[in-house]
Amino acid sequence: MTNVQVPVPPKSTKPGLKREIGFIGLLWASTGSIIGSGWLFGAKDALQIAGPAVIISWVVGGICILILALPHAELGGMYPVSGGTARFPHYAFGGAVGASFGWFSWLQAATVAPIEVQAMINYAGHYTFAKSWLVIKQTAAGPQPTLTGSGLTVAILLMAAVTAINFLSIKKLANVNSAATWWKVGVPLLTIFMLAVFNFHPGNFTAANGFDPDGVKGILSAVSTGGIVFALLGFEQADQLAGESSNPKKDIPRAVIGSTIIGVFIYLLLQFAFLVALPASQLGTTWKNGLYTAMTGPFADIATLAGFGWLAAVLYIDAIISPGGTALIYITASSRVSYGLSRNGYVPVVFERTNKAGVPWVGLITAFIIGCICFLPFPTWQSIVGLITSASVLMYAGAPLALGVFRNRLPHEDRPYRLPAATVMSPLAFVVANLLILWSGWSTDWKLGLAILIGYVILVGNRLFNLNPTKPQMDWKAAQWLPVYLVGMGLIVFLSDFGPLAHPWFPLYWDILATAVFSAIIYYWAVHVALSADEISNMINTVVVEEEATIPGAA
After folding, report:
1. I need a surface site. Which of 43, 223, 390, 428 has the fewest CB within 10 A?
2. What is the model's pLDDT at position 339?
3. CATH tag, 23-548
4. DSSP H stretches of helix in 125-169
5. How far is CA 393 from CA 189, 403, 406, in A?
6. Which of 547, 450, 549 is nearest to 241 (CA)?
7. Which residues on adjacent β-strands are paired with residue 496?
8. Is 401 helix (H, G, I), strand (E, B) or coil?
């Protein structure tokens, strides 16, 4: 089908989003989101689960994330709209699916900022004055720093600070984030060099209870629950900010792919450096009970033990800048996702309000409030990692589905970046997303299911009380696969080796096969019943073209 040429609508005189971000701003928005608290804690937590075989876990996680990023690169270049990950499924499947994946996207974005703030406070527990004032070390789950009452107050103040910075124009915000990201990339590279070169202990690969104490299950569990996928999240920020990109068709694909490669490279080297730099005094009889597991500032503690006091000081400074920068950009993203959801008619129209700087301020305040609430049921960094990971990959699952639909329905659409072998890569990305959900385990996924139900209550309430004049069609026919998909994945996880059953229906490897087969069935079913080419084109021409009219030189 050829593109339908429609007149460009006149620019609105109302304040709106402004296209002011260049390639470096987009690249660093995604890279800065990837290099956050994950690098401060992920190496330690993942090592506890998989032992030295965690190196394999990072390779698996990196490949999975790259496979998930590639469909986002093509879609972001095709349709450069604000909150893109929440809107691609809407264009492909209509209202019911769009509302669902929009909620998954917002849930992921809104819950990252509080976990980054928690990381800042956890590292502050290194200082004597803050040990009992901000965090308590021992919990029922083990030596995990937990917020005290005063720590909760400081967390809320930090959330307020990163929210306030977001009221700047997007250009100023991008400049602030870019400056922080240069630091955030440089410090990990410096740490890798100092620890791996000057404190190298090759015997650690076979120390404690061996290289791979829990075998394949431990390697795969570390990918989802050890903070590996969580650490690598963030490439989608270029898509979320696409509505404010000055040259989106060229810059967004490069930013998505480039940030993913940078992130995987740095994290793999960080895990290697952490493993080889651990002194023998920190190892136990197993990788799960070594003294290193009690470290509140893992890399800084190792630097101190190695005699690099100056590096430890730099790392404690970075423990403010790295998580703070990531929290900053995710608050930005959550407000843009809610803006996109409102444009589609899923949430109240008030979320489209922008200030004179073009910032959707209602979304910022909402993200701040929800972020503060997250501190209550999730008082530790580790307690929320699994939930964010599952919500993120569930959100990511919408992109390969949408890509499959667009390749099928709109084969001649302009694609500044064209994913090679998309007929294979797109369903593969959907399978990978569901495998990551499987490896997160039932203890995490049932909480995600509860969060999904809460989202549906909000979406239905918006419709019943007429809080948005835009009334998207629900397109139930195109969404017939969605409840089967959500319930089916829940059942597979429950009955799998990663579920609560002593004798799972799907033992290890069989659960992977079951997930892959189920995912393939859902993928081709969804593509078959998606909206028609004319329905997709009409929707895109009334929504996407209007936003593209703000691109300099667009016609």
Report:
1. 428
2. 85
3. 1.20.1740.10
4. 128-131, 149-165
5. 27, 16, 20
6. 547
7. 506
8. helix
